[in-house]
Amino acid sequence: MPAVINDVDSLRTFRGQLNETSENLREQLRKTESSLETVAQGWKDSQFDKFKEDFEKDKDIIEPLCKEIDEFEAEILYPLEKTLRKYLDL
């Protein structure tokens, strides 16, 4: 396990993957929301309303998740990486 803890490059890669995941989730939410608005102009029925309602529920879960991912990366992983780099430079 110490090899994993001291693997700064893997930690940096993981941070990048988290950032990318968060950005991709936000982008997909924006695209889906935009598509829903376009479709809503010409198609309104109970199925569409149900889909839109479900999307809003998912969005209410995904947006806070993205924020938590960003905070974890910035407040936990980045400082950990800086500390490990200092330690390894000793």
Write a compact overview of the structure shown:
The protein is built from three helices and no strands.
Can you count the beta strands? 0
Main sheet: strands, sense, barrel: none
CATH C-level class is Mainly Alpha
Unreliable stretches = none
Average per-residue pLDDT, rounded, comes to 90
Write down the secondary-structure element order: HHH
Distance between the termini: 21 Å
Your description of this structure?
- The structure is a single chain.
- The chain is mainly α and 90 residues long.
- It has one domain: Orthogonal Bundle (Helix Hairpins).
- Helices cover 90% and strands 0% of the residues.
- The chain contains three helices and no strands.
- The longest helix is centred in the C-terminal third of the chain and has 44 residues.
- It is rod-shaped.
